[in-house]
Automatic annotation (TrEMBL):
GO terms for molecular function: fatty acyl-CoA hydrolase activity. It comes from the Bacteria. PANTHER family: 4-HYDROXYBENZOYL-COA THIOESTERASE FAMILY MEMBER, NOVEL THIOESTERASE SUPERFAMILY DOMAIN AND SAPOSIN A-TYPE DOMAIN CONTAINING PROTEIN (0610012H03RIK). Gene3D superfamilies: Hotdog Thioesterase. Belongs to the 4-hydroxybenzoyl-CoA thioesterase family. Keywords: Hydrolase. The keyword Nucleotide-binding does not apply. It comes from Pseudomonas taeanensis MS-3. This is Thioesterase. Coiled coil: none annotated.
Length: 141
């Protein structure tokens, strides 16, 4: 099991019908959407979400996405998506775990890496902006 992050957020999702494929399991591409829901919850916990990132002058595109599917989620299944903050000084790395809400069975694990990009110049930053680092430090205090 991966090391827990310094800050976590969990969301519960009821798998909707329109997310399943003809094999009656969640189509693999929809897991990225579930990660986004958990990531937004984590950023809200930091009090520095995408709206605040943009207001500070930075975009945070995902530059790396890793997914490992263990067991497919199904229509009507309640799943819990946990996002763990792993790195924030030079990049934003988040690990995820998707589990069945009832049994706790592990279904999928994932990670994303995002970097700050100055919106005005479109230049990638080699370190996370001070405003973001300060938000993380405040949330951890």
């Amino acid at each position: 099991m991966r090391k827990a992050g310094v800050l976590q957020a969990e969301v519960e999702i009821l798998v909707p019908f329109f997310d399943v494929d003809s094999m009656e399991v969640v189509w693999h591409g929809h897991y990225v959407k579930y990660l986004e829901v958990a990531r937004c919850a984590l950023l809200d916990r930091l009090d520095h979400n995408y709206t605040q990132m943009r207001a500070a002058g930075y975009a945070w595109p995902i530059i790396d996405l890793q997914l490992r599917y263990i067991r497919g989620a199904q229509f009507g299944q309640r799943i819990v998506v946990r996002a763990d903050l792993i790195e924030w000084q030079n990049r934003l790395k988040i690990n995820y775990l998707i589990c069945d809400a009832v049994s706790g069975e592990r279904l999928t694990r994932a990670s994303t890496v995002q970097v700050a990009v100055d919106i005005a110049s479109r230049e990638m930053q080699l370190a996370s902006p001070k405003v973001f680092v300060a938000a993380v430090e405040q949330a951890l205090a």
